[in-house]
Amino acid sequence: MERSCVAFKLKPGTREEYIKRHNEIWPELVEIIRKYGFMNQTIFINDKLVVAYIECDGNLKEQTDLYTKEEISIAWQEYFNDIIEERYDEFNDTRYLGFEEIWHLD
Questions:
Q1: Contact present, 66 and 36 (Cβ < 8 Å)
Q2: pLDDT tens digits, residue range 74-97?
Q3: Would you list the DSSP string of 3-63?
Q4: Cα dist. 74→30, 46, 104 in Å?
Q5: Residue 29 CA: distances (Å) to CA of 71, 77, 92, 94, 99
Q6: For a Cys staple, 92 with which of 29, 30, 85, 88, CB 3.0–4.6 Å?
Q7: pLDDT of residue 106
Q8: Active-site residue numbers?
Q9: Dihedral angle of Cα 30, 33, 34, 38, to the nearest 10 degrees
Q10: Structural contact between residues 72 and 26, judged by C-beta atoms closer than 8 angstroms
Q11: Alpha-carbon distance 63 to 67, whole Å?
Q12: Which is nearest to 79 in space by CA: 29, 23, 21?
């Protein structure tokens, strides 16, 4: 089992829309998420900051690489382009800020 956590910022005034879209998550997306062994996914939000946690039954990098090539996964990411900041901050050239796991309590 591997775990991962990312953070990203929402564009101003889009918090409620972000929540709404997740309350209406596409069932076919959930199927693909499970297909690639992802589970126990949790999303936290504080104003414009979002932190997402996920566990993977298998190799996280390999499964993520396969998942991100699925049409429904691509469509979901594109669906959020209008509300997620393009860059996390001026020094980070990606949308998501990843975290290294250093400790875990079972």
A1: yes
A2: 999 999 999 999 887 766 677 888
A3: EEEEEEEBPTT-HHHHHHHHHT--HHHHHHHHHTTEEEEEEEEETTEEEEEEEESS-HHHH
A4: 13, 25, 31
A5: 10, 11, 28, 23, 24
A6: 88
A7: 86
A8: 22
A9: -130
A10: yes
A11: 6
A12: 21
Nearest-angstrom CA–CA distance, 45 and 10: 10
Q: 36 phi and psi, to 5 degrees?
A: -95, 15
Q: Which residue has the tokens 């709404």?
A: 20
The overall pTM is greater than 0.70: yes
Residue 39 has φ and ψ, to the nearest 5°, of: -155, 175
Q: Which residues pair with 6 in a beta bridge?
A: 52, 98
The tokens describing 23, both together, are: 């309350």
